[in-house]
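Readers of this paper often ask what the protein records in our data store actually look like. Such a record has a labelled line for the sequence and another for the backbone structure tokens. The tokens are whole numbers drawn from a learned vocabulary of local backbone shapes. We quote a single record here, exactly as it is kept in our systems:
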Amino acid sequence: MLSPEQVRQAYADAGFTQGEPPPDDAPPHESYPDAAEGEPVLDIQQPRAAVLGEWDAGDFTDMPLPREWLLGNQFCRRFLSGLLAPGATGKTALRTLQYLALATGRPLTGQHVFKRCRVLLLSMEDDDNELRRRLAAARIHHGISPDDLKGWLFCATPKGIRLADMKEGGMVRGPLEAMLRQVISERQIDLVGLDPFVKLHGMDENSNSAMNFVSEILVKLAIDLNIAVDVPHHTKKGLQTAGDADAGRGASAARDAGRLMYTLTRMSDQEGETFGIAAEERRLFVRLDSSKVNIAPPSGEATWFKLVGVRLENGTPDYPQGDEVQTVIPWHPPKTWDGISAAQLNAALDEIEAGLPNGQRYSTAPRAGDRSAWPVVQKHCPDRTEGQCRAILSTWTKNGVIYAEEYDDAVERKPRKGLRVCHGKRPS
């Protein structure tokens, strides 16, 4: 990469200076505004040998150093990460606890902490007091003292200070970049969290060129300072699907720049039924899924968290109850098959194969009534919920252990389909 002095010299060699209109034969840009660090935002055409920086692959015989992961597969030095989630899903509560995990060196979220890190958290929406409330809730619930964070977690709540903006019709870097570089260097920061992405800039979020401009500043920040940069982002309106990389608001350039993108979605009704969670409590459970992890294998299963309310005990005469603020705790859904013996499963299959005493056969249909097969599974696996028993039947159907076969129903006096068992595919 050229130094600012080299770039300025290239401008001089081309016959014009920064901030001045370029000559007629220059690239079609109106001006070349200064960046926060003193180098021009837009590059000019320069001699290829001086700019490209090519290297001979044959000169490198040693293996490169491993990637410097910080927390699980969430944050890594020199890479941009993000979390896509609708409002009020628990995105900020989760990210706050993940940052605290790094600052304390404790696996508070159940994810591996590779090394204790200094964290800089910028909340672009909340003020100082609200951010302190969020931190207090997490500290109280997880037993974190202020001394645990001293010198490891730094916070700011800037408003109206942007990383990028529009000026006289052109895209320019804002003062936030220089501020970040200074604090990162002075505090020896390892990870910067900027929440949320939409508040970082004053650009058209539906413009790919504008979002690419903002993202390139973030990526350059990560590479230049050897830090991890995390930018949580709101999702667009509509139904959200776990692991959907296209869920983020605005242009796709913001998504494409991130190498470690995740989604956070609420527990669905189907998942709630499977896990045996009451309908009124399902909103408290959220799942974290990789949506664009292209430098590490995607996780085979979702990572689950539960939102919990924490009393801050900060009541006053006017507000005696004080505040209750959310934090998160790791949560592990019950494993459908864990602890079930082959004998239990085969006993259920025996009963399904035998059929009902009146000659009818069992069914997996949602409205099968007395012919429903899931109670048979639950009879032999009494610690499993209805949803889990249905999930077992669904797996058996997919694997061909059970199948539907037409028979004459003597009770209803009509042909219908009922379950049979493929004995060669029984569990052993």
About this structure: Confidence is low (pLDDT under 50) at residues 14-40, 42-49. The radius of gyration is 29 Å.
